[in-house]
Amino acid sequence: MPDTPLHLGVLLDGAGRHPAAWREPGTRPAELLTAGYWADLVAEAEHGLLDLVAVDDSLGLQSADPFASDDRTDQVRGRLDASMLASRIAPLTAHVGILPTVVVTHTEPFHVSTTIATLDYVSSGRGGVQVRVAARPDDAALFGRRTIPTDRDELLRELFGEAADAVEVIRRLWDSWEDDAIIRDAATGRFIDRDRLHYIDFEGPHFSVRGPSITPRPPQGQPIVAALAHRAEPFALVGTSCDLGFVTPRDAADARQIVASIREAQAGAGREAETVHVWADLTVVLDDDASAARDRLARLDATDPLTDDARVFAGSPTELADLLDDLRGAGLTGFRLRPAVLPDDLRQVTRGLVPELQRRGLFRAAYEASTLRGLLGLPRPADRYATTAGSAR
Amino acid sequence: MSRRQMHLAAHFPGVNNTTVWSEPESGSQIEFSSFAHMARTAERAKFDFMFLAEGLRLREQNGAVYDLDVVGRPDNAAILAAVAAVTERLGLAATISSTFNEPYEVARRLASIDHLSGGRAAWNVVTSWDKFTGENFRRGGYLAQGDRYLRATQFLDTVMTLLDSWHGDEIVADKASAAFLRDGDAGRFDVHVDQFDIRGRFSVPRSPQGRPVVLQAGDSDEGREFAAAGADAIFTRHGSLEAGQAFYADVKRRLAAHGRTEDQLKILPATTFALGDTQAEAEERGREIRRQQVSGQTALRFLEQVWNRDLSHLDPDGPLPEIDPLVVDADTPRVSQGRAADRMYRDPLATAREWRERAAAHNLSIRDLMTEVTSRQSFVGTPQAVAEEMERFVDQRASDGFILVPHITPTGLDEFADKVVPILQERGSFRADYTGTTLRDHLGLAPLDTHAKV
Hints:
A: eight-stranded parallel barrel, two-stranded antiparallel sheet, B: alpha/beta, TIM Barrel, about 15% strand
């Protein structure tokens, strides 16, 4: 079990969460598509003993408008596929978890499953995925295979239902090879014991998947599945299907309500005995001098204002530690910080906030596990098919 | 130097009987360390690229998952992205189906790998064909033979349209003037063809190579035409010098009609090898490897693939069966599913006749015959002899190089790299070091016009 009372991750995207970040003196906006840029950021996160780095992604090109594309030229545009980036940086690190965002509507759950299983292999058990839905008509047009309902409630029900189905398929495929399926039995000439491979036979409105996976069960058995959640449908997805939910509470009272919603869904799915983490996302602008941090945010906002779904915090690492300690009391088990400017605010997290939390006994002094599940205090799960019938023969 | 240069690639050992898994030195087919080992060996030997095959459903025979060969592979694109972290120059070739993917996703992955490897990505475009594999995917279903190449052609063209939607000069990232992009419409695309109806803006700016190197593996007339129209290299299976020369001449002849020159399409046959200190030792080793590759059980399974019947009751050391192969139409499931070779024997009755005559003439058992017809190594001999023979294939226009298929994971390339490559380098037929950084550089392909139109 983990010896850290509080878990910490960071969300990495472009030059930082703030739209004006790329114009700051320390950023490297011309290098956002190079492996070296990301290698440096992930090394910094690992230096700070963080549980994980999440790599943001979307299907379409970035846009300042959450509901449509735009034609702005004064913000970062263009990004790499997060799952490819995650695999590229995994061999360069040894401890930190790596969580690419992957859109699971439109795409093939079979490919998502093998891609994340492969990430888990190349990271020796530090892989996971943040599943995301793509709700915009212009996202659908990139694939051209379906139309998107115009009624927003119907849309969200459909998309989160599809996401839940996708997670179910992804997880079943990870379990479709039992851990000891590869036997290399020279005496009988058999490489595998096919009784330990399983069809998953999932049938749903958007896809049916037969299985088994082409990829053996990944090192963690089940890599971490996470989702960002702002309302009822994704709260349910986190409670029923995920190991980790990222939420965006305004304050401790709001956090308490959100956690209760997720716990309710978790219980409804019969998962009371399992650990489901709920972390709050916070966008952070940090400086040793709190007023300097607030001045910096004001300056950034004057250049190009930030509108964020998560609470924006500007202040000192000490003040942020106070806030995290307070929010922790609302039932949150950790935080995913979104550095406003990279690498500046990431370094403030790893070299300012982390030592402060360590002084308070709230954060680990060394990595205590070699897998992401281990860091999150999750056991390696038994294979769901290990004792059941229905083998692939 | 005047000697004709060859290209060399390494095929990571696959999931068929070529790969011997029962030897003590046979390692994991799935751990990253195996991929890293073979990639480092290939890079140490200055190879052009490493190649990964793909299969999106586990093979089955007689209604059960096929268990005699290596089973289980990673996602190609993800494993190659990781291999990019432990290599600096080696090309990285992923086989990715054009049937069970959408162009937007494939273009994103390929452009991302090309960025993350500094211009070393390659894509082997394959068409899948069967409802069997489709059961793992949204699209499901089956494409008729004619539609497979239509879809493949339109898929390839569409991916290229997406990749070409950025020209490489859009990102200025000028902090002072607040201009990140030069053009607010960068990445715009609009494709309306039979198979795809998509529009929007592509999210990955132009990568170092612009487009990945395109490989193609089909051998049919349509496959050759597809390659002549748009591929940079062909992965062939023509073993003999004469067959190789005929294929080479045929494919190169097709290029002019597409406005291309002969050096724009490299022909690279799959190649196996057995080395020894003497010719006799190499031949003995070759025989031993073939014996491991074709066990009695494996021989029966091969025979079933042609006969399309369950023949598990037969003795592999006995004669061929009296009964004829069961001939079915293309839509009827066969005893073997998920193998490209299942439909290779277009006339199984003729194959059976030929094999019966051959078995009778030489008094061959099922296993003897299957060993003869399936798995003889391409090159058997001392390192010197193998090097000279490979040069002969290249000099006499049977190939532009080779894709080596080792039989052991992950160390099967080591001996070739240590013993044969230095001889080729000494003789001036293979590079002593990389002269460029991208895979296009290694293959001698000119950089692309960044404003090219498909």
